[in-house]
Design brief:
The chain is mainly alpha-helical. It has one domain. Helices cover about 65% and strands about 5% of the residues. Helix 5 packs antiparallel against helix 15, helix 9 runs parallel beside helix 11 and helix 14 runs antiparallel to helix 15. The longest helix is centred in the middle third of the chain and has 25 residues. The relative contact order is 0.14.
Length: about 300
């Protein structure tokens, strides 16, 4: 027994053991999303090829959906700008503005209302400018606001989810206005079409400006993660500033002169906004792809025992 007792040694002091499993009052508690590590045994047994491993890494990326939607949105926006410049309109002024974006009067809207006997799909294809780019941009802003807001637990970023939903409702509301503008039962052979001009303008502001504002709501999170103060706040505010400025000038032009050619500079609101969006959102999509998943550190308030 003596020889056995001499070989005993203390592995851990009971006092230190109790202290190690308890948190102090002012200790930090890390909560939030954590990266999923791949099992080492699976790595050794499977040994996937380089192409397969790259595909698996892409599928496991936590911002994969916002990145895909962002790329689709940027491609659709580029094609829309090129199509508008090459095919729409014969004069320089007409190439800078589409009637479905910011109409000058109700007569321009009547040309896009549903015709008598026109099918639903045909009318949707005829007014595809309303929903083609807008739906993609709204889904992108919705996805990135949700992912960033949940990961960072940021209230302002989560507000972008609500703004994106309102923008999506505005897109559907514009199409409903054009679809139901004309009377389905013509009187004395005449079809009466009443397109609510002011309401359509308000829905246009929500449809085009909502995604820009929702994406800007996530700027503070990107600044905190990347260690900046105002870079993303200013950079993502460029499309919002271009859109608000152009829309305000165009609204003043329509009120003052009824959209006369003397104020043709204000009609470039969509082009200003599109260029600013391409510049800022391209950098944002690249940054989202390179962004690693982050956790939230919550500080527990000290309390008296």
């Amino acid at each position: 027994m003596g020889s056995d007792d001499s070989e005993l040694e203390v592995l851990q002091d009971p006092s230190s053991y109790t202290k190690s499993i308890q948190k102090d009052n002012g200790a930090r508690w890390v909560r939030g999303l954590t990266p999923i590590e791949t099992n080492d045994s699976v790595k050794l047994t499977t040994a996937p090829s380089s192409t397969r491993s790259w595909v698996l890494r892409c599928m496991r990326h936590w911002l994969l959906v916002p990145v895909i939607l962002g790329v689709c949105c940027l491609l659709a926006l580029t094609m829309d700008m090129a199509d508008m410049w090459m095919t729409h309109g014969t004069t320089y002024l007409e190439r800078r503005r589409h009637p479905l974006d910011f109409p000058l009067n109700e007569d321009e809207l009547r040309g896009f209302t549903a015709l008598q006997g026109e099918s639903l799909m045909h009318h949707l294809s005829r007014v595809r400018r309303i929903w083609c780019v807008s739906v993609l941009s709204t889904l992108f802003s919705l996805a990135i606001s949700w992912r960033i807001g949940i990961a960072a637990r940021d209230f302002l970023a989560l507000c972008g989810v609500g703004v994106s939903i309102l923008s999506l409702l505005a897109t559907g509301g514009q199409w409903i206005l054009l679809w139901t503008a004309c009377d389905t039962k013509p009187k004395r052979g005449n079809i009466e079409c009443k397109a609510p001009f002011v309401l359509y303008w308000c829905l246009t502001v929500a449809r085009m400006g909502g995604p820009l504002l929702a994406v800007w709501f996530t700027a503070s999170v990107f600044d905190d993660v990347r260690g900046y103060r105002f870079f993303w706040k200013i950079f993502l505010a460029l499309p919002v500033f271009a859109y608000v400025s152009g829309a305000a000038l165009l609204a003043n032009c329509c009120k003052r002169g009824g959209g006369s050619p003397s104020c043709d500079g204000e009609h470039a609101v969509y082009r200003w906004c599109s260029v600013a969006t391409l510049l800022s959102w391209t950098q944002l999509v690249v940054s989202c792809w390179a962004q690693h998943r982050f956790n939230v550190v919550l500080m527990v308030k000290p309390h008296n025992e």
